[in-house]
Amino acid sequence: MERYDLLHSTRHFGGLVWYLVNARRVDGLIIDMLQKDLWQDAVSLVGLFNKVQPHSETAQEASSQQASGLDLLKIYAKWESQRAGYVELALQAYEQTSAEIRLTIMHHHT
C-alpha cells in the first residue's frame, strides 16, 4: 500500500527498509522520500541498496564513477528503477529549485 509514513517513526521501519532493499523493491520508498523532500534519506537508501546488492548494475555503475550524493539517485533511476521517469522528474525539479535559490541568494548579495 506504500504507506511508509505509518512505520517511519516506529521500530519496524528499519525492518521494512531491509526487506525492500533485499527484495530490490525500493522504488516506492525512494519516491515517498523525494515527495517529502527527504533527499539525504533517499541518497542513503540507494547507498544501502548498493551495499546489499553489490552485483547490481546500479552498484557497479556507482562504484565505477565513485558516485555520491544526488548522482547515486541518478544512477539508480537509470539502471534499476521501475519508475525511473518519476525519479528523474523529481531530481530535475529539485535541481531547478536549488539553482533558483542559488540565483536568488547571489542576486541579493550583489
Would you tell me the structural class of the helices and strands? mainly alpha
How do the helices and strands follow one another from N- to C-terminus?
HHHHHHH
Please state roughly what percent of the residues sit in beta strands, choosing from under 5%, 5-15%, 15-25%, 25-35%, 35-45% or over 45%: under 5%
Instruction: Tell me the helix content.
Output: over 70%
- Per DSSP E runs of 2 or more residues, the count of β-strands stands at 0
Radius of gyration: 15 Å
What does this structure look like?
75% of the residues lie in helices and 0% in strands. It is mainly alpha-helical and 110 residues long. The longest helix is centred in the last third of the chain and has 26 residues, at 84-109. It starts with a helix and ends with a helix. The model has no long low-confidence stretch (mean pLDDT 85).
Descriptive key words:
75% helix, 110 residues, mainly alpha
Short description:
About 75% of the residues lie in helices and about 0% in strands. The chain is an all-alpha fold and about 110 residues long.
